[in-house]
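Record filed below.
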Amino acid sequence: MHPHITDDKPSSCPICGMDLVPRTREAAHAPGQAASVALSPALQQSLGVRIGHPERRSLAPLFRVGARVVPDASGVVRLSTRSEGWIERLHVRAVGDPVRRGAVVAEIYSPDLVQAQEELLLGGRSVAGARERCAGWGSPTATSMRSSSRANRAAGFRSGRPWMA
């Protein structure tokens, strides 16, 4: 229906082909007034129309939807050791614990690291190779091991940057 199409005699709309019907006085309304619609009680019932007085109340509907919460992948920090072994003591207790840069996250036992430290303490031909292996794994220096004169059983695994567990 195209309300801007008018004609003073019965005809059809040139755009859609619908029959033009004469406008009655009840259908016409003054500018600035709202148009009204009249529905029979049977039609009101079938449409579910409810009539009432205006009142103030919350219009926020309650929606229940299924959802899956996933962590933000941009904040994921992966830590990897430089040698084989296992964690003997974990210093981070729970998810959400803050970890500072350089803080010990875990103490790791590595048979390869203990062997390299013992070779370094014994001296001999393999000192250079043992020193390189210890440095590559982030193990204490030879001077700190010689002061205690024994190999460290567990090496502290430190964080490279601040993050949240």
In short: The mean pLDDT is 78. Residues 83-164 form one domain.
